[in-house]
Structures are given as C-alpha cells and as structure tokens.
Amino acid sequence: MNLLDLFNEDLISSVLRSLIPILLAALGGMLAERVGIFNIGLEGMLLVGAFAGVAASYFTHNWVVGVIVAMLAGMLFSLILGYGAVYRKGDPIVLAIAMNILAVGMTSFLIVAVFDVQGVFQDPGIDGIPTWRIPFLADIPWIGALFALTPLGYLALLLVPTLWIVLFRTPLGLRMRGVGERPLAAATMGVNPQRYQLGAVLASGALAGLGGAQLALGNVVLFGENMSAGRGWIAVVVVMLARAHPVGVLGAALLFGFADAIGFRLQSFGLPQQLTDAGPYVLTLLVLILMSGRFRKTREAAVA
User: Fold this and answer.
1) Where are the alpha helices (DSSP H) in the chain?
2) How far apart are the C-alpha atoms of 155 and 170, rounded to whole Å?
3) Could you give the CA distance from residue 14 to residue 260 in angstroms, rounded to a whole number?
4) Contact present, 131 and 150 (Cβ < 8 Å)
5) Helix axes 193-213, 63-81, angle to 10 degrees
6) Are 39 and 81 in contact (CB under 8 A)?
7) C-alpha neighbours within 13 Å on the C-beta side of residue 27
8) pLDDT digits over 123-137, tens only?
9) What number of other Cβ atoms are within 10 A of residue 176's Cβ?
C-alpha cells in the first residue's frame, strides 16, 4: 500500500464515522457555552449515553428505543451539572470533572452488574443503528458517503444550520446569548437566566447522549469500558476552537475526525496502534497551545 491509498473514497466514510459522535457532543457543549456554562462533562455524558443506548437496545431489540434512552440518560446525567452549577452555584469545572470520573466508574460497575461481563459487551441481541442510503446520491463518487449515513448522522449535520438559525435569527437565540454574555441585563428584561441555563445544559446532555448512541450503536455495535476514549474532551476543544459557533464547530470537528480517520488507516502501514490512536490527542494539545496565545492577547487587549 502507498500513501495515495490513504486518500480515497473510503476515507470520507471513515471521517464521517469519526466526526458524528464528536459533532453531536460539541453542539451540545456549544449550547451550554452560549448560556455561560462551560461544560467539560461531555466525556461522561457520551459514555453514559453509550451504555444506556446499548442496554436499551439489547433488552428491547430496537435501536430506536436505544437512541431515545441514550438521549434521556444523557439529559438525566447532565442534571448534576445543571442543578449544581445553576441553582447551587457550584463550580462547573469541578462538577464536570467529578461527573466524568463518576461515569467511568458507574458504567464499569454496571457492565458487570447488568451483563455479567468485564471489559466489552457484544451480543447479537443488540440492535445497531442502520445506515440509510439515499438512492442515486449515495452512488456519487467521493461525496456519496454524505448520503449513506445513520439517522443520527443526518441529524447531526442538519443541526448545524438549524442551531445557527436558532442562535442568530430567533428571539430564543437572542435570549440565550444575552444570558451567556450579560445575565443581569437579561434578567432586567424579564428573562429568567437560570431557566435558560438549565435548559441548555439539559440539551447539551441530550446531544452528548445521542453522540454516545452513535458511537456504540452506529459506529460499532457493542459497549466497552471507557469507550468514549477522550472524544468528549475533543468535543470540548472543538467548542473552544470554534468559539461556540455552529459552523465553526462543524469545521473543527471535521479536523479532528480527519485526524482520527487518518490515524486508523495508517495502521495498514504497520504503524503501532498506540501511535496512530494518539494522533487526535496530539492535535488537541497543539490546538490548545495555539489557542492559549490567542486568548492571552484577547485578555491583554481587554485590560488595555
């Protein structure tokens, strides 16, 4: 195999598979960011959604139920952050880190308690999310992969323009941005900041839960301990890099999805899996280093 074999039509499919869970989680993080809640608990929400989706799909043999339960599980888990940060005025960073740790321990315990296995649960009874191919369009060279996605894949891509419209062209979006930028001013205009913040955090959990469902039922059909594997943290960096803008979130998520897909395909060249798997996280560190300089200049300009 030569390097040209890396860049073919299959690469587009690999990028999209890597992209969708990150994009869904990042869109959720973006909504929370817009109302002033920095949500770094996306990793735990992804993991909880993945486990809940697999469990529901296994017991009902229905992927739709699995997706709905994953979304509800993500919302329920996000209540920890919503109640603690919004109503109890706790530090959202501390709360979210605790949630991530809780998610790892809780799902590791539940996989043994519910399925009596350790490490990975894979069973024919799990109903995976199907791929919906759009006739003719799915057969177009190179871009056909965009028309052969799971339902959650189409949903994730459609959410980008939808959330842009909501945030920048509707009264709801104006209120959300007002709550995030000037909560006291928003309150004087009759807006309840706590209600909007809690709603955005719950929506963030729901989208992260859907990302977990895509990861566990769409990309693969199994649940493994800690299978989110840092994707939630990457989603946090995506939100920061995009400055909580829907189009920017898509672009940044594509960047990380491409890095993940390239890393996986490089294993065909004999590179160690540990090295190729590190690609997206090395990119994350580089982005954070570059962004730190930009944020420092922004703070200095604000002080001046």
Assistant:
1) 9-34, 42-60, 63-81, 92-115, 151-169, 171-181, 183-188, 193-213, 231-242, 246-266, 273-277, 279-303
2) 20
3) 8
4) yes
5) 140
6) yes
7) 29
8) 999 999 999 999 998
9) 24
Q: Which residues of 143-154 are buried (b: 16+ CB within 10 A; e: fewer)?
A: ebbbbbbbbbbe
Lowest mean pLDDT among 65-69, 105-109, 267-271: 267-271
Question: Dihedral sign, CA of 159, 77, 107, 94?
Answer: positive
Fold of domain 3-120+130-303? ABC transporter involved in vitamin B12 uptake, BtuC (1.10.3470)
Query: Measured between alpha carbons, how far is 184 from 204 in angstroms, rounded to an integer?
Result: 23
Whether residue 108 contacts residue 47, with contact meaning beta carbons closer than 8 Å, is answered with no
Q: Using one digit for the tens of pLDDT, what is the confidence trace for 194-204?
A: 999 999 999 99
- Region at 21 (left for phi over 0; alpha for psi -120 to 50; beta for the rest): alpha
Which positions ≥6 away from 122 have C-beta within 8 Å? 221, 222, 223
Compute CA distances 250 → 146, 172, 295, whole Å.
Answer: 14, 22, 21
